[in-house]
């Protein structure tokens, strides 16, 4: 018997998106806005003013207990135990083979508490990785709560359905969030909050978790709020930013923004078949840790495994995911993400290519529907905002 796929989930803000005229797409099992007006207008709003994104499809896990820091050191590629309360760190969940299960951001919310945010498409995979690691790491039963032989405790909870997540990105983001009616920052002020850090606050009495992170290459914030208050916060932020150029933005603009910023997307630049060093993420791995999931597999790949590079071209025709990359008459790689950059005005792409063709300045070509388009290997990111 063939099972009928489950319908896509909807965000707590779905009604707001419909009222704003959004077009939707299935993304990671969620029915999410792809655009409201035009991809170009939304992209430019983020670069020049601000954009508001619903990212409630992302998954959130709370990890707490006296063994929480040690557990995250074991299950993630980075060293999380040395991170200070109030800070955030980008990290990776690895398979035993060394391949990437997901990329995550970890926030230390207390001495013994952490928040891990993962991609929507990998929510189940990350939950399974945590459960497997916990079971093999010292929990006799593999249950979500366990006490080890020394009396330490660990609890891992998937809290995704309890919260909505809203991203406010762009040069006007701080002013907009500061002036949003009902928002009160009770922890570190927005003026003093550093990059990859978080603070706490409230919105009309509901708790707010405000992180200065993002996925667009611009400054901005990601705000987590209980689902019941999400729509009111969305409305209040849009109203506060109306005279500052704020617009709602969909996944299409988010994709071109992150591409310009050289940020990887799972399923394109990251997968279980890619180890961190191939994707330029070797710095994320704390190789000096005694043991962690995936460590033994990191050195097992072939020496000539393809590596991620940036490619720039002239003209208007952009390489897209799956297009072949050639060096002379030899196919040496494949585009993973590509677009005509709205900010830079020329095509950009990320691609995995053979190491011999990966040096900065190497002249390659992209097969764009039968036409060879010259492309030059360049350093990532393509775009970097002014500090």
Automatic annotation (TrEMBL):
Subunit structure: The glycine cleavage system is composed of four proteins: P, T, L and H.
The GCVT N-terminal domain, residue ranges: 13-289
GO terms, biological process: glycine decarboxylation via glycine cleavage system; methylation
InterPro entries: GcvT (IPR006223), GcvT/YgfZ/DmdA (IPR028896), GcvT/YgfZ_C (IPR029043), GcvT_bac (IPR022903), GcvT_C (IPR013977), GCVT_N (IPR006222), TrmE/GcvT-like (IPR027266)
Protein name in the entry: Aminomethyltransferase
Entry GO terms, CC: cytosol; glycine cleavage complex
Annotated Gene3D superfamilies: Aminomethyltransferase beta-barrel domains, Aminomethyltransferase fragment, Probable tRNA modification gtpase trme, domain 1
HAMAP family: GcvT
UniProt: substrate binding residues: 222
Organism of derivation: Microbacterium testaceum (Aureobacterium testaceum)
The enzyme's E.C. designation: 2.1.2.10
Underlying gene: gcvT
Pfam families: GCV_T, GCV_T_C
GO terms, molecular function: aminomethyltransferase activity; methyltransferase activity; transaminase activity
Domain Aminomethyltransferase C-terminal as annotated: residue spans: 308-383
Keyword Iron attributed: no
UniProt keyword terms in alphabetical order: Aminotransferase, Methyltransferase, Transferase
UniProt family annotation: Belongs to the GcvT family.
Function of the molecule: The glycine cleavage system catalyzes the degradation of glycine.
Catalytic activity: N(6)-[(R)-S(8)-aminomethyldihydrolipoyl]-L-lysyl-[protein] + (6S)-5,6,7,8-tetrahydrofolate = N(6)-[(R)-dihydrolipoyl]-L-lysyl-[protein] + (6R)-5,10-methylene-5,6,7,8-tetrahydrofolate + NH4(+)
């Amino acid at each position: 018997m063939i099972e009928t796929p489950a319908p896509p989930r909807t965000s707590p803000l779905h009604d707001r998106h419909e009222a704003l005229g959004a077009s939707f797409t299935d993304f990671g099992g969620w029915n999410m806005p792809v655009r409201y007006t035009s991809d170009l207008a939304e992209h430019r709003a983020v670069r020049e003013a601000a954009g508001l994104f619903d990212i409630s499809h992302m998954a959130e896990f709370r990890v707490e207990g006296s063994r929480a820091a040690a557990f995250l050191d074991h299950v993630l590629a980075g060293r999380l135990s040395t991170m200070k309360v109030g800070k955030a760190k980008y990290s990776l969940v690895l398979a035993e083979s060394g391949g990437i299960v997901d990329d995550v951001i970890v926030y230390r919310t207390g001495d013994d508490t952490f928040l891990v945010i993962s991609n929507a498409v990998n929510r189940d995979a990350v939950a399974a990785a945590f459960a497997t690691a916990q079971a093999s790491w010292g929990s006799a039963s593999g249950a979500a709560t366990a006490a080890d032989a020394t009396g330490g405790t660990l609890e891992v909870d998937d809290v995704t359905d309890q919260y909505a997540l809203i991203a406010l990105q762009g040069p006007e983001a701080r002013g907009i969030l500061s002036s949003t009616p009902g928002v009160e920052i009770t922890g570190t002020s927005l003026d003093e909050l550093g990059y990859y850090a978080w603070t706490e606050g409230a919105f009309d009495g509901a708790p707010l978790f405000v992180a200065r992170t993002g996925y667009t290459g611009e400054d901005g914030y990601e705000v987590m709020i209980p689902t019941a208050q999400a729509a009111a916060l969305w409305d209040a932020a849009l109203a506060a930013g109306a005279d500052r150029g704020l617009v709602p933005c969909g996944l299409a603009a988010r994709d071109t923004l992150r591409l310009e910023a050289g940020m990887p997307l799972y399923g394109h630049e990251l997968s279980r078949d890619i180890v961190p060093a191939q994707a330029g993420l070797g710095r994320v791995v704390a190789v000096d840790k005694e043991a962690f999931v995936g460590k033994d597999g990191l050195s097992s790949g072939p020496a000539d495994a393809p590596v991620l590079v940036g490619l720039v071209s002239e003209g208007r025709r952009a390489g897209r995911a799956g297009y072949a990359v050639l060096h002379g008459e030899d196919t040496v790689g494949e585009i993973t993400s590509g677009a005509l950059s709205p900010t830079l005005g020329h095509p950009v792409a990320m691609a995995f290519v053979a190491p011999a063709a990966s040096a900065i300045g190497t002249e390659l070509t992209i097969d764009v529907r039968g036409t060879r388009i010259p492309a030059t290997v360049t350093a990532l990111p393509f775009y970097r905002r002014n500090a």
